Amino acid sequence: MNYHNSPNRTREIAVVAGAGPAGLTAALELTRQTDITPIVVERDGQVGGISKTICYRGNRMDLGGHRFFSKSDWVMRWWQEILPVEQPSDAAATVQLTYQNQSRLFAPAPRVPADPDKVMLVRQRISRIFHRGSFFEYPLRLNAATLKNLGLLEMSLIGASYVRSKIAQRTPEDSLEDFFINRFGERLYRTFFRDYTEKVWGVSCRDISAEWGAQRIKGLSVTSAVLHALRAPFRSATDTAQKGTETSLIERFLYPKFGPGQMWEEAGRRLTAGGGQLHLQHRLVGIEHHDRRITAVTVLDKVSGTTRRLACDYLISTLALKDLINLLRPESERVLRISQRLPYRDFVTVGLLVTRMKPHRQTSGENGNGMPPDNWIYIQEPHVKIGRLQIFNNWSPALVSNADTIWLGLEYFCGEGDEIWSMADGSFIDFAARELEQIGLIDRRDVLDAVVVRVPKAYPAYFGDYRYFDELRDYVSEFTNLYSIGRNGMHRYNNQDHSMLSANLAVESIRSRGVGKSRIWDVNTEDEYHEEVAQRTE
């Protein structure tokens, strides 16, 4: 493998570890904004990280479900430049985008584009909670369906509990339990939030930092959900960006026709066309540094088993922070110990192909095969381990090879090496199908095919030694030409757009010879920060 990295090189080199959203965004922006040559090394055989698309016998899986929505103008433009929005079916041939408190008309791809498959679709977001055998709208709404499902007495108790939480807020707000109760009231928290959250993280909400809620849920509350419902009749059906909408209340989003990986595969092609390098099945195995400056890295070619030393001027890392620090070989045993104890939650998806689903009284039945309209469903039933159910047909019809079948993703949260993670594929498929049958959504006899996909370190966690995280951030920040970005690089539960914003800020700092490097850590802490990013990068 030729890395085009000779001792006589005249251009600066940036090694980028990882070809997920953060790594590819940083590398592509380096080719666009600088004369620096990015060399991307990715240990997997495909790009996209957790945002990749898994293809199994013609059916495509989105690991976790990725809405293409951002409050940042810069991110929205970036996505649409890579994959334009599909021409709408109506004669208007425009989509109204309303975000950053501005309304504008966006011109999608031409009616007969050069490649009609390289587009993004405008999708309607529908997600519900499955609890006590009934479907509840998510976010919860105070409507007739919710009242019928819960009953008048329970609704009254939830309302009284919410009022109490507003009168007597928990202070200080240290734990995720405090965060939820302050915003939703204790009874609603115990009914709809506690069990599912503890299923995801494997620990009590009392042991999770409130910072997780601040980054994932931000300003959402019962009040904001009610106001959102009241404003719903006045919103345009083609408004896809929704700048003023809380992330958890978004009702329309953009989505690549063939899943999220399509975006990053196209970004990878543009990277190499622009002079960057992308090497799959290559892993960073060594880092050299002197006086707090990275001087070279060692890369392992997983196919040939050979290693190569690359001298570099910059290192942009999206590696899990614990792995990066291990490669840096810190002198401080405490820093190394804390990094090795950083907690993560891992993830297993079972792709299940079925001929039909069992009809439910709360689904329209328009499809004739029992398929509900949801993109995904939160499974709140405590007697099963499944956490969430994706219905890939409703993300994009192109994800399913046969329109007469239903392609499901059953999501399980676990720890690498535990009972769920270690279950044999055949046993896991049978276990997952039985659980879905147990809660009345399928009949196992209707299963046609299945596959198991495991994702390590999918969710950076906010408990345990995470409380010492600032010490790790300070240590990594001492290296003047090292930029640790993205979901795992920052050990932060980022969405795609947050990871992209951190990547763009890293490129800006490199262009400015290190100025503004600390701003990377402000991403996904304050909503309004995204507006500032968009304004600076225009």
Number of helices: 17
CATH architecture grouping of the largest domain: 3-Layer(bba) Sandwich
CATH superfamily of the largest domain: FAD/NAD(P)-binding domain
| Sheet having the most strands | 7 strands, mixed
Question: In percent terms, what proportion of residues is strand?
Answer: 15-25%
Instruction: Specify the CATH class of the largest domain.
Output: Alpha Beta
Question: What's the helical proportion of residues?
Answer: 25-40%
Helix-and-strand structural type: alpha/beta
Give the N-to-C terminal Cα separation: 37 Å
**Basic shape:** globular
The stretches of 5 or more residues where confidence is low (pLDDT under 50) are 97-104, 527-538
Mean pLDDT: 87
CATH fold assignment of the largest domain: FAD/NAD(P)-binding domain
How many β strands by DSSP? 21
In the residues, how many domains can be counted? 3
The Rg value, from CA coordinates, equals 23 Å
Strand order of the largest sheet: 9-8-17-18-19-16-20
Give a topology summary.
Elements: E1 13-17, H1 21-33, E2 37-42, E3 53-56, E4 59-62, H2 73-82, E5 95-99, E6 102-106, E7 120-124, E8 127-131, E9 134-137, H3 144-150, H4 152-167, H5 176-184, H6 186-201, H7 210-216, H8 222-231, E10 252-256, H9 260-273, E11 277-280, E12 282-289, E13 294-301, E14 307-311, E15 314-317, H10 321-328, H11 333-340, E16 344-354, E17 376-379, E18 388-391, E19 406-414, H12 419-422, H13 425-438, E20 447-460, H14 469-477, E21 482-484, H15 486-489, H16 496-511, H17 528-536
Parallel strand pairs: 1-2, 1-15, 2-11, 8-17, 15-21
Antiparallel strand pairs: 3-4, 5-6, 7-10, 8-9, 12-13, 13-14, 16-19, 16-20, 17-18, 18-19
Helix pairs in contact: 1-9, 1-16, 3-4, 4-5, 5-6, 5-7, 10-11
